[in-house]
Amino acid sequence: MVSSGINAEYMVSSGINAEYMGSSGINAEYMGSSGINAEYMGPDLAGEYYPLLGMDEAIRQQLVDDHFLFMSGDPNLKVGGMERDWPEGRGIFHNKDKTFLVWVNEEDQLRIISMQKGGNVNEVFSRLVRGINAVEKVV
Predict the structure, then answer these.
(1) How far is the C-alpha of 119 from the C-alpha of 59, rounded, in Å?
(2) 34-53 tens-digit pLDDT
(3) Which of 14, 21, 16, 15 lies closest to 104 in space, CA to CA?
(4) 3 CB-near residues (< 8 Å, 6+ apart)
(5) What is the DSSP secondary-structure string of the chain?
(6) Which of 5, 26, 80, 130 has its CA 20 to 30 A from that of 35?
(7) Mean pLDDT of the chain
(8) Buried (b) or exposed (e) across 4-36, using 16+ Cβ within 10 A?
C-alpha cells in the first residue's frame, strides 16, 4: 500500500506536472546550451535538451515513440497564436531515466513533468520539486 491508502498494484504509472505561463517566451536555446545541465539538476535529473528546430529524425521518432514530443497542428493553439514561428524556440529536455521532462514553449512556456511507473506519488512529487527548484535557478 502507498501511504495515501491507494493500492499500488493497481497503479500503472504516476505523474505530476507544473506549468508556467508568462508574458514572454523562454529562451529555448539557453535552456539547452547552458541552462539545464548536471550542475543545476543533480545526477538523477541531468539529461539532454533537444531543440525542435533541426532535430535529428531518429531522435524525433524516439521522442514520438516515447510519447514525449509535442506536435504542431492543434487548431486551438493555432487560433490562440501559440504556433507562431513553429518550431523555432521550442524544445524538450528529459533526464536519462525519462522520469523528468521539461517542455519549452509548447502551449505553456514551461511544462515541468515528473513521472514513473508504479504508484509512488511521493517519489514523483519529490523529483518534481527538485526539478522545479533547479529550473528556477536558470530561468
Answers:
(1) 29
(2) 456 656 677 888 888 888 88
(3) 21
(4) 122
(5) --TTS--GGG--EEEEEEEE--SS---HHHIIIIISSHHHH-TTT-EEEEESTT--HHHHHHHHHTT----S--HHHHHTTTTTTTTTT-EEEEETTS-EEEEESSSSSEEEEEEEESS-HHHHHHHHHHHHHHHHTT-
(6) 80
(7) 79
(8) eeeeeeeeeebeeebeeeeeeebebbebbeebb
pLDDT of 132 higher than 60: yes
Largest CA distance in the chain: 48
* Region class of 105: left (phi > 0), else alpha (psi between -120 and 50), else beta: left
Q: What is the pTM of this model?
A: 0.78
Q: What is the Cα–Cα distance from 107 to 18, expressed in whole angstroms?
A: 13
